[in-house]
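S.,

Sequence below, as promised.
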Amino acid sequence: MKIDRRCFLSLVIGGAAGTALTPLPWKLTDDSSIWSQNWPWTPVIAKGEAFYETSACSLGPGGCGISVRMADDRTIKIEGLAGHPVNDGGVCVLGLSGLQLLYSPNRVTGPMKRTGSRGSGRWKSISWDDAIDEIAGKLSDLRASDQPQKAGCISGNRYGTVPELIKRLMKVYGSPNVMTVPSLQDSLQLTMKSMHGSDAVFGYDLENADFILSFGSGLIDGWGSPVRMFRANSGWKDNGIEIVQVEPRLSNTAAKSDQWIAINPGTEAALAMGLNHVMIGDGLYDSNFIEQHAGGFAGWKALVMDDYTPEKVAAITGVPVAMIQKLAKKFSGAARPLAICGRGQGDEPFALKETMAIHALNALAGNLNQPGGVWAIPRPDYIDWPDVEADNVAARGLAAQRVDGAGAGKYPLTPSLLNRLPVAESDYSLEVLLISSANPYYTMADARTFQKQIEKIPFVVSFSSHMDETAMYADLILPNHCYLERYEDVPVTAGMARPVIGLARPIVEPLFDTMHVGDVIIRVAQAMGGSIESAFPWESYETCLEETLSDKWETLNEEGFWTDEDFQAAAWEDAFTTESGKFEFGNASLDLSPGFEALAPEGDEATYPLILIPYDSMRLANNAVTNPPFVMKTVEDTVLKGNFGLVEVNPTTAKSLGLSEGSVALIKTPKGEARVKIHLYHGIMPGVVAMPKGLGHHTKDRFTAGKGSNIKELMGTVEDQASGLDVAWGIRAKLTKA
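The prediction came back faster than expected:
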C-alpha cells in the first residue's frame, strides 16, 4: 500500500483526538517515503513471542501510562496504557515515537570528560569510578574552603524521588542553590499560596465543566496531558459545552473552539479584570461564597470598578466593549464555568497579577473545589525521609543568599528564579553546577546571555542521556538511563483533579554504559563521607524508590499507576489556610494597583515595528526532549520547509513590507536575527508575527540540527515585579527581504 506524505500526516495527526486515542499501525512505516532517510538504526522487528510491559512516559508533563510491545528483548511499539487515569489507552505522537529516543545515534554511550574547549566536541571516555571521584572531589574542595554555597543544580523536574535526592544532597552539603526550569507551574503555585494560602497544585475538573474560558491555553496543542485534553475536548463537543479561546493567534485550539477572541498580545489579564468588573458590577457572582468564604473582596472590587471598566479594557485589549460584557454574562450564567490560563503548552510563566486576575473569575463563580471547577490538589507528599543533619559548614552555606535571588528580598515567595541567574546580585558566583532533566542552553529566553552566564561556571556536569546543547558545553557528561531503561516515580501534576503517581519501569536492559542519576547522587554522597554519606543510607536508587513508595510499590508494579480514589477536595470551610482562613482576592504583600495591561515588549517601536510571539505545536518538542525523526516527519511545510523555519505574517502586514508567500526574509529583534521564510496567515493579527518553539537545534543530531531557528535566541526577558519570573511573551521585531 502506497502512503504519500499528506496521508501519513493525516494518519499521525488526523482529527486531533482520533489519532491521539488510537495506536498508530507501525507497519505503514515500511513506506519508502518514510524510510527514505536510510537510517542505519532502523528498528528491526525481533522474532519471538510478543508480550507487553507497562511503564510511564516522562517525555512531557502528563505522566501518561504506556504499554510497550516486546519480542524477546526488543521493543517494537509503544501504545497508551488502557485504564490509566490520565490517558486511558491513548498516546500522543511524541510518546508514540519514544523508541527512537531509546535507539537514537545521538545518545551518550558512557561517561565522558571534555578535553577541548567548551563546545569543541572533543571528549574522552572515563570510568564511572573516576567520574564519581571527580565530582566528589570538586564538591569536597568547596566545603574544605567553607564555600559549599558555590555549588548548585538545575532540575527539569519539581517532584519525585530524583529531584528530592538532589535537594537532599544540596541541603546536607550546604548549598541553597537548587533551581528548577521555570514554567506556568511556578505562577500557579504562587497564586495558590497567595489566594488559598496553601502549597497545593492546581487541579482542573475539566471533564465536568460546562463552559471553558481559556486565556491562551493550548488545550489541543499540548497543554497539560495532550491525550487527556483531546478526550476532554471531544466530550465538550459531544455535550455541547462552549469553549472560548482568548489569544492573538488562531491556534489549533482557537480554530476548534466555539469562539476565538483575538486580543492584543500580553493583555489577557486586563480582559480578565474587565470580566471581573462586569460580574461584580452586575451582581453576577456567587454571593454565598463571597460573603462567607472570601476576604479582601472590598479592595478587589474598588480596584476592578475604578480601573477596569469595559471601555478602558477594550482600549487595552482590542476586544470590543459589547464582547466583554457578553462574555462575562456567559461565564457567570454557566452552572460550572472554568477559567484557565497558560499560553500554549504552559511552558512559560504568567505574571502573578495575570494568574490572580484569571483565578478570581473562578472564585466569583464559586467554582473552587466544586465539580467542574478548580481543585486544590495536595503536592506529592509520599516522600517521608528522615531530616538531614546539617553540620556547621552546611549551616553557614545554607544561610547564604541564593545566586538567583529567590526566596528572599523582593521575591520571598518564589522558590526558584533560574531566569535571574545572569542578572541577580550575589556576593559570590557558582563554581560547580549539576544539570538534570534540563537543557537550559536551548530552552531559556535570551539564550545567548544565559549561555554566557553558564560558561562562567568552572565545572558543569550534565546528566543528559542525549548530546543536547547543554551537554555539549559541559565539562562532564554522566548519561542517565533512557526513560525506557530505568525505574522512576512519575507524580502527575499537570492539572489532574486527583493525586496520581505513575511508575516508569525498565522495559529493556540499558543499551550502553549509562547510570541512573539517582545512583550517581547516592554514590557521590557516599564518596564524600561523613554527614553527607549518612544522609543517603540506601544501597541503590531502586532500593530507595521501593522503600519510599512502600505501600504503593505493589500497586504501582502491578497496575503501572496509583491514584487516590477516595480523594475529596476540602469543603470551603476547611479549604483555605490564609491568615483569615478565607480565599483572599488581594494579598497585602502584592501591588494590586493598575498595571495588568501588557508589559512593553523590548525594543524601540520605530526600529522594530512588529511584535514577535512564539507558539507551541504538538509536533514540536520544545523542552529537554528533542523531536524524534518520526515526529519531525509530521511537521507541516508551513512550519518547516527544508531547513527554513517559517514565520507567520498577516497578508496585510506582508504586503506593506513587500513580502510574499515563501519569500526569504531576515527577522531581527534586539536580541538576535534569523533567516526565515514567509507564511501568509490570516489567523495572525496585523502587526504581529509568530514563530514556533522547538526548532533551531545546534547539536550534531542530523534529524533536527540546523532546521529552522530557535526563537528563544530572539526573545528577551521581562521580569515580573511581583514574582521575579520571566513573563515576556513577545519582543519587538522587524522583517526585511533577505
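The CA atoms of residues 248 and 719 lie 22 Å apart.

Coffee later?
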